[in-house]
Each structure stands twice: as C-alpha cells, then as structure tokens.
Amino acid sequence: MKKNLPTFILGIVLLTGLVAPLATGASAPGFYIEVLLGGLMAGVLYSLVALGFALIFKASGVFNFAQGAMVLFAALAVARLAERMPLWVAMLLATAIMIVLAWLVERLVLRPLVNQEGVALLMATLGVSYFLDGFGQTVWGSDIYKIELGIAKEPVMILDQLFQGGILVNKEDFVATIAAAALVASLMLFFQKTATGRALRAVADDHQAAQSIGIPLNRIWVIVWSVAGIVALVAGVIWGSKLGVQFSLSQVALKALPVVILGGFTSVAGAIVGGLIIGVGEKMAEVFLGPVMVKAFDLAGGGIENWFAYVLALLFLLVRPEGLFGEKHIDRV
C-alpha cells in the first residue's frame, strides 16, 4: 500500500477535478477547461522557479535558499534599468549582471567550501539570500516597481463557438506561459544534447568521478549558477509583470518548494511535471473542492489554493521523500 500511495494521491488530485464539478453544479465544459488552463499556466510558472532549485541541487547537492532572492534581484535589475533604456536592453544587461553574480558566488562562496559538509553549503546559500535581499534594496531601492512587457492584461474570450460562454484566458498569462515553456524546452535540449549538458549531468551523478575524468567542478558550478540566474531573471520578469516588483516577490520561491518535493530535487523533468500537477491541483481544489468543504463542514471558505500544494507535498515526504522522479538512495550496512 505504501508503495502505491503516491499514485493514489495523484488519483485524488485528478478526481478532485473530475468529481467535484458535478457536486458543485459546475457542469459547463467551458468553465472546467478554463480552470484547467489556468492551472496549467500557473504550473508552468511554478516549474520555472523550481528549475532553479533543481539545477543547483543536481550540480552541487545543495538546496539553494538564495533562489527566491535571485528572482527578486533579477526583477529589480530589469525594472530599474528599464526606466533608463529599452526593455530588451535592460534584460540583456540584467542577464550579464546575473552571470557576473554567479561567478562571484562560485569564486567567493562555493570554491572555499569544496569538499565541506553539505550543511556548510546550505548555510552559505542562506547567507547569499540575505545578502541579495539587502544589497538589492541598497542598489535598486525598496519601492514597488513595474515591468511593462507591452502585453494587454485584459482577458480575452476564446472558443466561444465551441463552448457556451467561451473560455476566458488572460493574454499576458498565456504569452508568459509560452515563453516559460520555450525556456524549459531549451534547457531540456541543452542538458540532453550538448557536451556541457552531459558534463553537468556527470557532475550531478558523482562529483569525484567527474573530476577524475577532467571535468572542472568550479567551471560547472559557474555555468549552473549562471543558468539558474537566467531562469530567475525570466521568472522575475514574468512574476514582476503580474504582481509588481516588490520584496515580497522573493516569497514566490516558496511556491516552488512543493513542486521540487513532488517532482524530485534531482530531476529537471520532475520540476516540470510537479509544477503542472501543483498548478492544476490547487486551481481545481480552490474552485471545485472549496464549495464542497464549505457545505460539508460549515466552513468560511477560501484559502485552499494557499495550502493545498503544501499538504500534497507533505504526503509525498511521508511516503516517497525522493519525489516522483527523484533517485532512491539505498544505504547498505
């Protein structure tokens, strides 16, 4: 039973979307598809943030507490630079800043801690997180800033000829989802098809073995942190455009924690699949399961979207800590 419990949990997530609409009276297929699309689009954005965690964990075996601060710092850089230059130039400069930041983190923080205990690297990333929060406020300011992508924020109605009432889709969310999906696909090809990507996977499998065949660990770490910085930049621009660039933006990374727990800390594919499951699951739970719980238990309602992902992640931690796609660790005694 314990072995099959993750599948059982995923079945509950899917049944939430299949059965709950009948219980709430939301039988219109257009409304169901609208919620499903909203969950998928949110899931892609969660996956984008989770990728930063997965990439660094694969290369160094360390959970990067600084990923949320990197998202905020990149968004602040783009927002403030865009006040003085075109947006595309600001994004190019911000990309260069994130690459330089990756080099500094490797050179000043990670390199002196090579072969140290994992907890030392963990605390180092926590220190980097606090530094970026404070340094970002010092350099870029602490007000709320906007990132204008030039995309209309008003929702549009699609497929109104197929479904009664049509399907309401936010154009900005749709474009952001396409951009995030393209970046995710590019990263997958990079890891699978390029020599550098294969070297990254070799380092992830075994640091000492990779070094013994001539793969420079320090250079790999710079590349990984640079890629994670670029991912943080894209995530920061997207979320900054949706929510505004403010210091609470770093908390977006907390939404990616259930994603990496569900998909597996060492799996890029798991970050993608986990993000989609979390995105769809929380949207379905909020829209369909919420009213059922209100009627059944006489609750005030609302807020399910805030805790559903963490409850799902907790269940997986109890029965499958390595996640759906993570590697199982067997200790022989």
Plain-language structure description:
A two-stranded antiparallel ribbon has the order 1-2. The chain has 333 residues and is mainly alpha-helical. 72% of the residues lie in helices and 2% in strands. It starts with a helix and ends in a 14-residue tail after the last helix. It is globular, with a radius of gyration of 21 Å. The chain has one domain (5-319): ABC transporter involved in vitamin B12 uptake, BtuC (Orthogonal Bundle). Strand 1 (155-158) and strand 2 form a beta hairpin.
* Helix/sheet category: mainly alpha
Question: CATH class, anyone?
Answer: Mainly Alpha
Main-sheet strand order equals 1-2
Integer count of domains: 1
Q: Number of DSSP strands?
A: 2
CATH topology: ABC transporter involved in vitamin B12 uptake, BtuC
Q: What is the helix content? A: over 70%
Query: Helical stretch count?
Result: 12
What do the pLDDT scores average to? 76
Our estimate of the beta-strand percent is under 5%
Form type: globular
Give the second-level CATH assignment, the architecture: Orthogonal Bundle
Please tell me how large the radius of gyration is.
21 Å
- Report the uncertain regions: 14-20, 22-26
Largest sheet: 2 strands, antiparallel
State the end-to-end CA separation: 26 Å
What is the N-to-C succession of helices and strands? Answer: HHHHHEEHHHHHHH
What are the salient characteristics of this protein?
333 residues; mainly alpha; ABC transporter involved in vitamin B12 uptake, BtuC
Kindly summarize this structure in a few lines.
With about 325 residues, this protein is mainly alpha-helical. It contains twelve helices and two strands; from the N terminus they run H-H-H-H-H-E-E-H-H-H-H-H-H-H.
